[in-house]
Amino acid sequence: MTQKEEKLERFDLDLNKLGRDALSEIQSGKTNLTGKDGVLTPLIKRIIEASLDSEMEVHLESGSKTESNRRNGRTSKTVQTGHGPVELETPRDRNGSFEPQLVKKRQTVLNESLDEKVLALYGLGMSYQDIRAHMQEMYGTEISQGLLSKITDKLLPMITEWRNRPLESVYTVLFLDAMFFKSRDNGKVVTKAVYNLLGINQAGHKDILGFYTAESEGSHFWLGIMNDLKARGVEDILIACIDGLKGFPEAISATFPQTEVQLCLVHQIRYSIKYVASKDQKPFMVDLKKVYQAETKELAEQRLLELDEAWGKRYPMVLRSWHDKWEELSAFFKYSADIRRLVYTTNPIDGFHRQVRKFTQSKGSFTSEGALVKLLFCAYQRIKEKWYQPMHNWALIISQLDIYFPGRLKLEI
Prior knowledge:
Blueprint (H helix, E strand, L loop, with lengths): L2 H25 L13 H22 L8 E11 L2 E10 L18 H12 L4 H12 L5 H8 L2 H9 L6 E16 L2 E14 L4 E9 L4 H13 L4 E7 L5 H8 L4 E4 L1 H10 L3 H15 L4 H15 L4 H9 L1 H4 L7 H7 L3 H14 L8 H15 L10 H11 L9
Helix pairs in contact: 1-2, 7-8, 9-12, 10-11, 11-12, 15-16
């Protein structure tokens, strides 16, 4: 019998013994199959170590005959697996040239199943502390904060690829609004604004085209976003529905000059009410509704003048805001009722933000901007699973948009 055959026979005997021991423990009532003290852990450990020994033999045999390389003891390390932690004795060689493939040097996670479990929990909005407790309770696996960070960092290349993915050439409506989060930056907790872009394509399906973090807004910032969309294949946007973002109309007209800008009426109303005394808010809203609920733009303008006569002297700043922004606020009047309901407010993206908050509500602040972006991406992946239906009444809406914007849609019929 050769030396290799003797090793294989001893390995079979060891496995048989470990298997019998495991079966005996299971029959005796031990229910922990995996984890640090699980009955299957010794089997996993033995199989992995035997595989590493085989890799070492192949490495030594394939070396140059002039080299005097040989085994040089073992190194202990603990790796995390989908079945719990396993303590391994990995072989070393004298020259230090052995590079194991099954469990590589400095590798602390053995397979993808653990990563998948961690990322799934992280995608549900669980904190690192909660994930560590869950993995310990369910799988007997101790995971350090650093290891969790390394696992979730695997999302970063995916996020980069997603942020640079090609987009469709035409979007019927683009919604843009911001969310605000607390995040650490250079040792201080600061407020980060994340601007999300939600687009509706020609088939009526919505999707997040991108999210962008910024500490301040302005024409230069918006121009960068619009150029990013253009570089990714967007050729035309019919309507952009936004909050009163400083510098955005100028930026979008520079890149997509035919795009019509509609300011969100709901945001404008909220801003107005903030500067109206509480005792006047109810009667003021009665008069204001007559403006934005008018059947035509001409009638709305007449009622805006009446609103100014009734309230302008008491609240000149509020009325001045409506007059200054009127062209962008009143753009929706030219459309039918179905399109009006779609574009008069940024409600579609506000709905997305409400769902994101369900994933981030447990976060007082994020450790970094990277941690914020990772969780936003996970939340988006979950939320978009429900976006498989086109917008309500889309067949009627797209037919009307084709009339309002002749020759700009690229419909295949």
